[in-house]
UniProtKB/TrEMBL annotation, chain A:
<feature type="transmembrane region" description="Helical">
    <location>
        <begin position="100"/>
        <end position="121"/>
    </location>
</feature>
<keyword id="KW-1003">Cell membrane</keyword>
<comment type="similarity">
    <text>Belongs to the binding-protein-dependent transport system permease family.</text>
</comment>
<keyword id="KW-0813">Transport</keyword>
<feature type="transmembrane region" description="Helical">
    <location>
        <begin position="59"/>
        <end position="88"/>
    </location>
</feature>
<dbReference type="InterPro" id="IPR000515">
    <property type="entry name" value="MetI-like"/>
</dbReference>
<feature type="domain" description="ABC transmembrane type-1">
    <location>
        <begin position="65"/>
        <end position="256"/>
    </location>
</feature>
<feature type="transmembrane region" description="Helical">
    <location>
        <begin position="177"/>
        <end position="199"/>
    </location>
</feature>
<feature type="transmembrane region" description="Helical">
    <location>
        <begin position="133"/>
        <end position="156"/>
    </location>
</feature>
UniProtKB/TrEMBL annotation, chain B:
<comment type="similarity">
    <text>Belongs to the binding-protein-dependent transport system permease family. CysTW subfamily.</text>
</comment>
<keyword id="KW-0813">Transport</keyword>
<feature type="transmembrane region" description="Helical">
    <location>
        <begin position="20"/>
        <end position="38"/>
    </location>
</feature>
<feature type="transmembrane region" description="Helical">
    <location>
        <begin position="205"/>
        <end position="225"/>
    </location>
</feature>
<feature type="transmembrane region" description="Helical">
    <location>
        <begin position="103"/>
        <end position="127"/>
    </location>
</feature>
<dbReference type="InterPro" id="IPR000515">
    <property type="entry name" value="MetI-like"/>
</dbReference>
<feature type="transmembrane region" description="Helical">
    <location>
        <begin position="257"/>
        <end position="279"/>
    </location>
</feature>
<keyword id="KW-0812">Transmembrane</keyword>
<feature type="transmembrane region" description="Helical">
    <location>
        <begin position="152"/>
        <end position="176"/>
    </location>
</feature>
Length: 275, 292
């Protein structure tokens, strides 16, 4: 049993080392976002809240946040509405070319966003959709819809089809079966999928970056542009903006973890039997 | 009658009105993924001077461009490998039920919320010349001169590890939780020690899942872009392929060249993923115990 303890110490030691450094890294940015200036000292000499006001005004954060919320919600709603029915058909039916279709839905997840993002953005520019809010929503649907399908298909498969058969025998029409049998059973899965899509969309950089315009950039892209664009911008203001981004993601994640058990993403958990 | 029998025969093969539910998703993916992809493929073969391979020739004959493949792999492969290998022991210790498991999982997943910019800013300040890391090392007396960690290769690699680890960890934990713990206990009754149980039972059952996790971690790391600019040397050792594609299209407005680079990028990435999945298909992929 001794080796077992040594290995525990090693693993938890490494985890603690990683977390301490990560915490210090986050703390650096947070401290810096409150600093008036911070040069060659352990901590800044003067603190201010002004950097947040500066970030808010200079980067037009209100507009950016509104765009981010609209894009994220639209992507979630559309990808659930389009993805869940498709997942139902894939889970319940075997048909010719099903494997080809599955591959088609898998590719947008397997291929890096830049690879299909560049031709996609070129096409959207050709049709003058790029730069608009609709363009940003459209590109974000490309990885989201397959993602919803991938999450929901196994979820639907585990619902016993005999429940539907029984409902039909009792005289329920197709509409009623979806509204009163399948729908309620799918709510937990749809919530999980929605939250994952929400987090992914808010964090999606590449695709949004390639098609955004001045009126349609989301928070991640605005952040990146703030760092990379030319001009005199204080690092502290950028850090303030990054803190705002992280806080909104933390809220999303905390809300998300209330609905999803992350260990159940790919298979049912097999616990030790309680005795 | 003929129409009815046709419908019956189709229904026997699984083709009925339920499949209409697939229609919106198929239209969306064909319109927004397949068509643009084929359009880009066609665009990448647009001749400039001598023939249809002009854009590819431009890419491969310029070492500054073609080198990006190697520079990207040099970042993505170690990052993905590290994220997967580091998740295994942590997830192994965390399978089963214990108090505070949810909290610990949440803490390990926190880096998802950071985003590339905060990670990059943090790395630049924390590991910078006057950052806390160098200060601490100097205070302890380990070094006399500040070490230059960032910007450069290591900065980008660290940022890939920080942002990629949570995903690899969640997937690994999820696969590991799907393995029936009674299998290991059965082995324990036969006298197998923990290492033997891990090597002979858990690991073989986990391998297919690890292969998938590696693929997804690799896909994430391979499309590295913002952090390569912010904590790397975007014209030097972290001139990654997605950056080359972006610059060709959005700075030189050469869409055919940008498409060609994007296609090369997709090809290299699919080759690695295909290789891993081919190895995976040779592994045991039966039931991991329990029901189904």
């Amino acid at each position: 049993m001794r080796t077992f303890k040594v290995s525990s110490v090693l693993v938890w030691g490494a985890v603690a080392f990683f977390l301490v450094n990560l915490l210090a890294l986050i703390a650096t940015v947070v401290v810096n976002s409150f600093a008036r200036s911070w040069f060659d000292t352990w901590l800044p000499t003067e603190y201010t809240l002004g950097r947040y006001a500066e970030a808010w005004q200079e980067f037009g954060l209100l507009q950016v946040l509104i765009v981010t919320v609209i894009v994220a919600l639209a992507v979630v709603v559309v990808s659930v509405l389009v993805g869940v029915p498709a997942a139902y058909a894939l889970a319940r039916r075997n048909f010719p070319f099903k494997r080809v279709l599955m591959l088609l839905f898998l590719l947008p997840i397997l291929i890096p966003p830049i690879t299909y993002g560049i031709p996609l953005a070129t096409v959207l520019y050709k049709f003058h959709i790029a730069g608009s809010l609709a363009g940003v929503i459209l590109v974000n649907l490309v990885p989201s819809v397959p993602f919803v399908i991938m999450v929901m298909t196994p979820f639907i498969e585990q619902i016993d089809p005999r429940i539907e058969a029984a409902a039909r025998m009792c005289g329920a029409k197709t509409g009623a079966i979806f509204a009163r049998i399948i729908g309620p059973l799918l709510v937990p899965g749809m919530l999980a999928a929605s939250i994952l899509v929400l987090v992914r969309t808010v964090g999606m950089f590449e695709l949004t970056f390639l098609v955004q315009g001045p009126e349609s950039s989301t928070l991640v892209v605005a952040l990146y542009t703030a760092v990379s664009a030319a001009g005199i911008r204080s690092q502290q203001a950028v850090d303030a903006m990054a803190v705002i981004y992280t806080l909104s993601m933390v809220v999303l994640l905390v809300v998300g973890l209330r609905f999803i058990n992350p260990t159940q993403l790919v298979s049912a958990v097999r616990e030790e039997p309680r005795d | 009658m003929a129409e009815v029998s046709l419908r019956h025969r189709l229904a026997e093969r699984g083709v009925d009105r339920t499949l209409l539910l697939l229609l919106p998703a198929v239209v969306l993916i064909v319109g927004l993924f397949l068509y643009p992809f084929l359009y880009g493929l066609q665009l990448s073969f647009t001749p400039k001077t001598s023939g249809i391979f002009d854009n590819y020739r431009t890419f491969f004959s310029d070492p500054f461009q073609s080198e990006t493949i190697w520079l990207t792999l040099r970042l993505a492969l170690p990052a993905a490998l590290f994220n997967v290998l580091a998740s295994v022991p942590i997830a192994y210790k965390m399978r089963g039920r214990f108090r505070g498991k949810r909290l610990l999982t949440a803490i390990l997943v926190v880096p998802i919320t950071l985003g590339t910019v905060l990670t990059a800013e943090g790395l630049l300040t924390y590991l910078g010349n006057a950052g806390w890391m160098n200060r601490t090392l100097e205070a302890v007396g380990l070094i006399d001169e500040p070490i230059r960690f960032v910007p450069g290769y290591w900065g980008v690699l660290l940022s890939l590890v920080i942002t990629g680890f949570p995903f690899a960890f969640l997937l690994t934990l999820s696969y590991l939780s799907g393995i029936d713990p009674t299998l290991e206990r059965a082995a324990a009754t036969l006298g197998a020690g923990w290492w033997e149980r891990f090597r002979r039972i858990t690991l073989p059952l986990l391998m297919p899942g690890l292969a998938v996790t590696f693929c997804l971690a690799f896909v994430l790391a391979f499309s590295v872009f913002p952090s390569a600019v912010m904590v790397g040397e975007p014209s030097g050792e972290t001139h990654v392929i997605s950056l080359a594609a972006y610059r060709a299209g959005w700075e030189q407005y050469d869409y055919p060249l940008a498409s060609a680079i994007a296609m090369v990028m997709g090809g290299v990435e699919l080759a690695v993923v295909g290789l891993v999945l081919a190895v995976r298909s040779r592994l045991y992929r039966g039931s991991s115990g329990g029901k189904g």
